[in-house]
Amino acid sequence: STQRVLRLRAPCLDSWISLWRASGSGRVGNCRTSVGHRQSERPLAFGFMADLLRPRPNGPAALRALLAEAVASKQPLVLPGCYDALGARMIEQAGFDAAYMTGFGTAASLLGRPDVALLGLAEMVENARRLASAIDLPLVADADTGYGNQINVVRTVQAYEQAGVSGIHIEDQVLPKRCGHMEGKVVVSEA
User: Fold this and answer.
1) Active site residues
2) In what order do the strands lie in the sheet with 99-101?
3) In percent, how much of the chain has pLDDT > 70?
4) How far is CA 33 from the centre of its chain?
5) Closest C-alpha among 157, 170, 160 to residue 125
6) How far is residue 30 CA from its own chain's centroid?
7) Which of 28, 97, 32 is nearest to 63 (CA)?
8) pLDDT averaged over the chain?
9) Which H, E and C letters describe 54-100, residue by residue?
10) Which one, of 114, 97, 69, lies nearest residue 166 by Cα?
11) Is 178 helix (H, G, I), strand (E, B) or coil?
12) Residue environment code for 175-189, b if the CB has 16+ CB neighbours within 10 A, otherwise e
């Protein structure tokens, strides 16, 4: 066969494979993993292609439906926060209806710094793209203050839409902005 076989050997891969299989992603190529103290052959690699090519749900429509249901039932819509694709997959596997990309978590994971507007639009959108492509849930993302004036906000919305994000939130802070749970925030006046 001309089919290439990927062989990996890592103890931590078992839990990842279990998570992946439980998500209903299907069959994959071959992988050698350790299970306890014995070795076993497990499928891995080629089924990822089928997983990547599957039709994607309409995230914005799904988010609107979830929000309408939450309003009608007077129940909150819980969106657990994540900052990477694995965290997003875990939220999906846990059975939540939607996920949230946290700005603080993204800044902390990429820079090791708090969310004080150190990351720009391109970095936040690229992280959101990775999360959105990893899950079939609607993803709501932190869009800071919109990254500039009104024209920049239009570009921000378009960039997040192109990344597959279902919704964003924009903070009404003056620059330099701070994460919502931090002290020293100044909110834009109504005038």
Assistant:
1) 179
2) 81-82, 99-101, 139-142, 167-169
3) 66
4) 27
5) 160
6) 28
7) 97
8) 77
9) CCCCCHHHHHHHHHHHHHHHCCCCCCCEECCHHHHHHHHHCCCCCEE
10) 97
11) coil
12) eebbbeeeeeeeeee
Instruction: Yes or no: say if 1 and 22 are a contact pair by the CB < 8 Å rule.
Output: no
Amino acid at 143: A
Residues 125 and 144: their CA atoms lie apart, in Å, by: 11
Q: Round to the nearest angstrom and report the end-to-end CA distance of the chain.
A: 70
Peptide bond connecting 138 to the previous residue in cis, omega within 30 degrees of 0: no
Tell me which DSSP letter residue 30 carries.
E
Cβ atoms of 139 and 99 closer than 8 Å: yes
Write down the pLDDT at residue 11: 43
Counting Cβ atoms within 10 Å, is residue 128 exposed (0-12), middle (13-18) or buried (19+)?
buried
Structure tokens at 37: 């103290």
Cα(11)–Cα(67) distance, integer angstroms: 41
Split the chain (191 residues) into runs of 10 and give each run's mean pLDDT. Answer: 38 49 44 38 49 71 94 95 96 95 94 87 97 95 91 95 94 72 72 63
Structure tokens at 66: 């979830």
**Cβ proximity of 45 and 68 under 8 Å:** no
Give me the torsion for CA of 158, 162, 167, 172, rounded to 10°.
-40
What CA–CA distance (Å, rounded) separates 190 from 52? 45
